[in-house]
């Protein structure tokens, strides 16, 4: 900056403050979030793609800035006070006010339009056409207790909003409350006492790959052997029960784990194994399935199916077939097309297992 006479300096400072002051008082208006929905709801019917009353159409920027029937532009960039649009939406005269029908815009809506015009009346493409941008994490005050509440990046956004409103985060819900929420969400009913008790008694830490559950990625022999020993007998018992009641013929039981596991590990340490979609086992019982039949096998490492490999589509076709539905003709209308559960190409059921 050039040297200024000393007498001018306070004046310059005052103007800078004024500029900073106004830009801070107003948030950045978003066309997609704040303006488009408002114009669409209150203006497009008469100033939009179908109708341009007074030669004013507001759905596209070029047209919105163009000269209208009155000989002036409704929007004068960065000059809300000279913009006919703002004059008309804030007018109290019945014959001038826009929209001419229904309630006048609220002061907040008028304010948003004013800010939008001040900020250059930007139009944005629909967000699906915009390249994704990484957002920076919002700042929150690190009060020790709060920062431990932030377990993942999304929490930081929630905490920042809570802090802005002066609210503390809620403490984590108790296990019983979580179970109740899940049941309401998934089936709309509360858990039975027994289901609740089973969940509360289960002390295994869940949801982590190293844990003792079917999702275990580490120590597979220990973890999966334990799971197998806990589930084998109950499954055998339920099959036996179905048979004793004469229901097994009519009940198709399908069971499988989450994919198989890779034969080798890429972990720096430990015994972890990741998912393997090239070789894994599913089994079926009842429902017209020929018991004791095995189809296909993997190589000796279990890395991929080599002998008579079958696909998930073929499994689906087998299930549909056993339910009395023709997998290659059962369709559902979706996205303008008749779609099949087994994909476009015809698929045969795995006939070897059908009794
Ligand atoms: C029901 C139809 C209708 C709706 C809805 C409507 N307008 Fe209008 N608008 C008109 C008509 C008709 C005119 C021309 C007569 C007049 O100037 O009053 C007009 C004129 C205008 C003008 C003056 C154009 C010029 O030639 O200078 C502006 C600006 C305007 N409308 C803005 C809006 C805005 C902004 C909205 C939404 C908040 C809106 N209008 C909603 C029917 C409508």
UniProtKB/TrEMBL annotation:
The keyword Signal applies. Residues 1-25 form the signal peptide. The keyword Transcription regulation does not apply. Keywords: Signal. InterPro entries: Alkaline_phosphatase_core_sf (IPR017850), Cyt_c-like_dom_sf (IPR036909), Cyt_c_Planctomycete-type (IPR011429), DUF1501 (IPR010869), DUF1549 (IPR011444). Residues 43-102 form the Cytochrome C Planctomycete-type domain. GO terms for molecular function: electron transfer activity; heme binding. Residues 153-205 form the DUF1549 domain. It holds the Pfam family DUF1501. PANTHER family: CYCLOINULO-OLIGOSACCHARIDE FRUCTANOTRANSFERASE-RELATED (PTHR35889), F-BOX DOMAIN-CONTAINING PROTEIN (PTHR35889:SF3). This is Planctomycete cytochrome C.
